[in-house]
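Record passed on here:
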Amino acid sequence: MTESAFDLFWHLISGALTLNPEVYNQINSLPQGTEAALTIVLIAGLSEAIGQCVVLFINKVKKLRFFLSLGISAIIFLFSFWFWAISLWLVSQFIFNINLELLAVIRTLGLSYAPQMLGFLIGLPYFGIPISVLLTLWSLLAEIKGIQEITQLSIWGAFACNILGWIVHQVSQRTIGRPITAFGQWLLNLAAGTELVTDRQQLEEIVMAGNQSTSFQITTDLLPQETNKPQKQKIKSLFKYIVIGFIAFSIVILLSPASGNFFSIWYTAFNDTVKLTIDLISIGLIALLCSIIFTPLESLTWWAGWYEAPTLRYSGSLVAEVPDRQDASVYVLYLDGINQGTYQYLPIVENFLDSLADATPSDVAIIKGIMPYSATNRPLTTDRPLAFLWNILDSIAQRNPDNPIAGIINLRNVAAVAVAADPRYGLIQNQGLAQVLFDSLLYFGYPLGSKKPIALIGYSGGGQMSMGAVSFLKQATGAPIEVISLAGVISGNTGAMEVERLYHLVGEKDGVEKLGPIMFPGRWPIVFLSNWNCAKRRDKISFISLGPVAHNAEAGPMGSERLPDGRTYLQQTLDIISGILTKNWGATGLNPDDFRTFSNYELYKEAIFNHPNYYPLIGNREQGTGNREQRIDGGLGSLPIQEGEDFDETQLSRQEIYQDFDRENLTGNRQQEIEENLER
């Protein structure tokens, strides 16, 4: 029986991904080659729509319409592919004089779309944008390889054919294809139930305008403890369980003996007990991995209103009670590092916060218990489909933070940090966190409109989360906000220009913090117009070295190891942070001039040309005796003013014009002429 293209479907895709030229001849010779190629294009269109679904979320498309819009987008993508294939076929026929069947071009071009089947990876936080570029280049190489194989052109000839085909495609879309493009957009708007905004700048304006249903509303029903999960939330989690079940089913298929792969052979060598254990571990790990990948969905669904507008179920707690909550000198919010899974902290962090409360005056309100890696302040262990797994991991992390299994929580929160740094998701994630901080401030008595200072202390990944929330929190409160980054990993593209000042505390042995200047282009010195570099030039960022301090544990800034001067690392950190909060620079042991905020007048005076001595008088002044005249050698002269009864000294306006000696003859000296005119 003859094999069809669908029988060798994955073989063809694998060959296209590896740029194997033989698969293009195969798909053109196998039965159902056209159908297989169009299937690849349809899958690629759906995958790309999933990767770019943030557009639908920002436009607040409802759930059912959301999935309908994804399907319509895939169909429109398929029709666009037809235009692209016809354009390429026309170029090959009339410019390169190559007699090709249109279906051959469709089959070849469709198979070259195999890399775009990975388009869903575009949705990954932070790394999705470079992945998008990589997939585009990958698909272009596959197209060139395929065209070269069926046309026998050189590599440059195939490249030129693709470029000319792309030009024809773009021109046709903007001319004869405009009605079809408009119809496709109308169909997509119909499926979404709203007129979709797709322009990047307009999308950013929508997000910056705020989530009108939830943004910065003063809520009075904040509960100190979490409530039970409502029945509606259980129903809304059903889809997530279906996804997890599908993934588990895929794992079973992968390990099935019928699949005949390496994993299944290895798997069948164990007895039933070991197999069951492997099944449970595999399903759990895959489910956790999917939970990490789906991290952006929490903030996106919050923005789109897929569940009821949340009130702050847990507002945090004060590290130490203040005498008058509405009259605190400064309000401090602590955002913990990436190992946080619940509202509780590791013992070393609790000790740091208690010691900080002891080191600061009683009117400094320090708030803890915020979950910065959730746009709705939800811990990993509550109100989530995999809450029971996160509970197990968090209990392991609490007992032994160095356990590698506890690192899964770190990975999940690293994904949240990447979401906050991503230009597509960051505005939504950061606005959600700012809403949480805003509600928490109000709960603990912050007088709205007072513009009392606010300080955010961000440890590790909390540094990025703090910087991300600054602009929205400042917009809501109008207060000056300072950020104290304690070994913070910061992208530099959010909050740098809005923060009053960023104090960046980092140890010399901190290898984690050093990833920030490497991974985030906004912190590269060559990108001199980035927010980070502009803020550095304006002295908004103060770098403070902690000496031989690492990133975490006892060797970190909260640790008990000692400096050469005898202080523990923790004591040094407390001295610096308490001094910053109270503006007691002597307690920090640092130079206070390094942290002064200069006024605009002081900055104005820094320019040498704004000083009077920059313009010295030339020559010698001679005081006149009979009239009010000053003679300046080398100048244009001066205007003599005769004394008389009508002379009003209060209205005297003096203007002296100076000229260099060597240019005096160019302008002349009109002193005599002026005197004669006055006499007349």
In short: The radius of gyration is 34 Å.
